[in-house]
């Protein structure tokens, strides 16, 4: 009963139609409207999500994905905006995904919707998207991996993923990013908070923002000391960059640090290894989600209730029932 | 590739061997050692778990499963012990599963291991098991549904499941129990805590324990008032029983309230409906767990890494990769 006729048909349906192929072509040329439509399609997880994913796949894998995280108040949005400016000045195409549960913008928000990104919103080389966190995969919106693929296919040299550094979200961004920037601001409290959240272990580049404030030197010193306690197995020496993002100070240093990290990732094959691990996690998550979805669909049919009846009647143990359910939800 | 030859063989392996059939027979006659061995087998989730589940299935569905929950300090263990005494005095066979993350006893703890249950530990009609909470299914140990089946098959008329009423665990016990007892003790704080945890909605029977203490009347009044605010859709009027469990006072009233609830559940078909819903949830959880387990097994093989490689190379989108993974993990 498994592996039957429905599979090939379902897969044929994921071939991109001519309209979608045209949309992807236009996105690859950098058309803001086409990029926006593709982002909406992956965010809404509609019936065409698979089709979009298939159409994007051949055009991905180029962008340098940079996660930017840190506690509220350290200046994440200001830093991201300053980074966009510096990257654009170097002629690079930039994408920004702002994943922030406190954002006033919904998942369907339009490109250029962020007030603080206003200066970049008319720049054709910048793609900005605010994504509401929704769904169950921690703080980072579940649609984020697909949205990253859209911006990657749109020819972005760098995609910045900004998340609030609370709870689980900084771990999520790490699992998505090639390079992770952890922002701190003067004041030992932030450093301790960061250490608690396990953020020090996952950072590739540290930024002490608001470096003109009292205590900046102390924060840098504390950070350097804390790093000296842990063994860095990867061989990458994590730089500590001082910035005053609101005035653009130190931002070129940050760009240089990120470029150096990318070169290091590429040289040792580490970038490829990270991408493989990320792809494995993503494939597994999609598989489990599909099993869940198919089981939910079977609630409406007689299959799951029938199995439950037989378990309650003692005719079937729950493990055999799970086998039968697996047969029913089996390969697409 | 799916639905192939491994399935029937895997299922044949779940037929109980003669040794296991003998063990189940001895457990059904109430032999403590046989019950203990079966509990260990399901707790350890070893290769024979499926075999045990299959052997137990025809002998389950009789026990009245009673969840007992409440905040720390309200007297849960004392109340459970008093309930065991009252039920034993009425000649009923009783099982106790103590699911408590703060328990000093491990999941492999022996029968009769609970100090406070000492008085019952030499009684052949009482089966007591402390289960450490482990695994990922919230506060209640994942093995609990299977352990319940063991005690059910062992001919227990009533199985008491004691959980600490913190976080998610009271919801878990509700999803397992036919009847849920929520314990409170004098002092409005407890009442408010309970309301916050959503515990008022899930209770079938309320117990105000330590009813000899100042404030007991007030707690009963507050509880009655809070219940009057919510509509009771089920048609069951939830009783509020006063007890002083440490002296056995009111415990017969609690037994009577539980018996009345069981009669009400049976008369309206509600017990069957709850068991069906519970079986559906259990089948689904086992299915997802098996998919997860099979994916984990594929990490060691080339399947998942190969799929990840093709996704990273852009040859395959992650949704098609998930299809292929689903084929590989497909029906057993």
Task: Give the topology, please.
Two copies of one chain form a homodimer.
Chain A: H1 6-12, H2 18-28, H3 32-43, H4 49-56, E1 64-70, H5 76-89, E2 94-99, E3 126-131, H6 144-153, E4 158-163, H7 169-176, E5 179-184, H8 188-196, H9 199-202, E6 205-208, H10 216-229, E7 240-242, H11 251-267, H12 270-300, H13 303-312, H14 318-329
Helix pairs in contact in A: 2-3, 3-6, 5-11, 13-14
Please state the average pLDDT score of chain A.
78
H/E element string of chain A?
A: HHHHEHEEHEHEHHEHEHHHH
Q: What is the CATH T-level topology of the largest domain in chain A?
A: Rossmann fold
Assign the CATH class of the largest domain in chain A.
Alpha Beta
**Strand content of the residues of chain A, in percent?**
5-15%
- Output the CATH homologous superfamily of the largest domain in chain A: P-loop containing nucleotide triphosphate hydrolases
* Biggest chain pair interface: A-B, 60 and 60 residues
**Structurally, how many domains make up the residues of chain A?**
2
Number of alpha- plus pi-helical segments of chain A = 14
What level of helicity do the residues of chain A show? 40-55%
